[in-house]
Each structure stands twice: as C-alpha cells, then as structure tokens.
Amino acid sequence: MLGVIGVATLAFIGGYIKIFDLAIFRQLTSGNVHQLEFVGDFEARQVENGYNRLPLFIVEGTIRNTFFESDTVEKIQLKAFAFDAEKQLISTHFSYAGVVLSDDQLETLSPMNIKALRHSGDLKMLNSSTANEDQSGTLKTGTLKDQGVPFQVVFFKAVPTIKRTSLQIVSYVRNNKLVYVRAPDLQ
Fold first, then answer.
1. pLDDT tens readout for residues 33-46
2. Are strands 148-155 and 164-174 parallel, antiparallel or unpaired?
C-alpha cells in the first residue's frame, strides 16, 4: 500500500497525474473570477414610442455583484440578442447596466437619444426634468457587495417578430481596470 502511495506521489510531482486543473486553481485564488450574475427572470414588454409611433420591445432585469466589498465594479456592458420564432437571430446591440428609462421617457425621447444613452451610459444627456432621481449623471453600477444593478435593453427593429431574447455580460470596469468576459456561443 505504501508503495502505491509513493508511486502516485512521484507521478503527481512529475506531472503525469493531475488532480485539478492548475489554470482554474490559479484563477480562483487570484480573485479574477467574474462575479456578476443575472438575478431571476427577465421582464419583457412593448412600449409605443410617441416620437415616431413605432413600438419598442423592452427587456429589464437585475445583475448582482458578488465581488468583495473593497472592489469597485462599474460600467457593466451587456450584449442583447433578439430571435424570431424559428430561433433565427434578428437583432443584436450593446447596452450598459444602470441605464433604466421610465415608460414616459421611452414614449417621449427620440430613438436617437435612447440609442445614445444605451451606448454611452452618459445620463447627463438628459436634462434634469427627465432624469430619474437615482440617475444623477454617473453610471456607478454595483459598487457594494450583493447589490442589484438594474438594466434595460431596448429593441427598435422587427419588434412584432421578436419571440425570444438573450443577454450576455460583455465587459465591466473593476477597480479602474477594464475586464472582458468570455462567453460561449448562444444556442
């Protein structure tokens, strides 16, 4: 029995036996694991934009930050996908978490202003009468542990044909460093 343990130890030291993947172990111990997750189900609805009388397809939800309290996480960028009934991709776009417009704002803002907000995350574009009280111009998203960060995705094209949506976290800024998230292909 002692001989088997000795041979196994030498094989492990020599690299012939791997108990765990060293790359995964290094990632876990270095704190580089992406600790952002979607909370619950997404909510979807249609809103008619009064500016151009076209329907908008809105998807909303929350992202939870489970990083350490000392970590600052902000500018969470999402990639949204819209599919038709045959599961064919009809639309994709990028958006930032933390930019959530009210139904009144979605009905009155021009599509160009909505798209600009979606791409930049700069809430200073809105004048003070249309900005929400909690959206005062900065996009600090998820700076506290387990804090929920709301997100809103707006689809402009092919709204009647959208049957399914999917979202991925693409990138975020953690402690003033841009971090990209690798994600598997969507099915």
1. 668 888 888 999 99
2. unpaired
Cα(111)–Cα(132) distance, integer angstroms: 18
Handedness of CA 94, 95, 97, 100 (dihedral sign): negative
Q: Give the HSE-up count for residue 67: Cα atoms under 13 Å, Cβ half-sphere.
A: 22
Query: pLDDT confidence of 139, banded at 50, 70, 90?
Result: very low
Strand, coil or helix: 108: helix
Is residue 165 a contact partner of residue 158, using CB atoms and an 8 Å limit? no
Name the CATH code of domain 34-180 (choices 1.10.20, 1.20.1630, 2.60.40, 2.40.50): 2.60.40
Record the pTM: 0.69
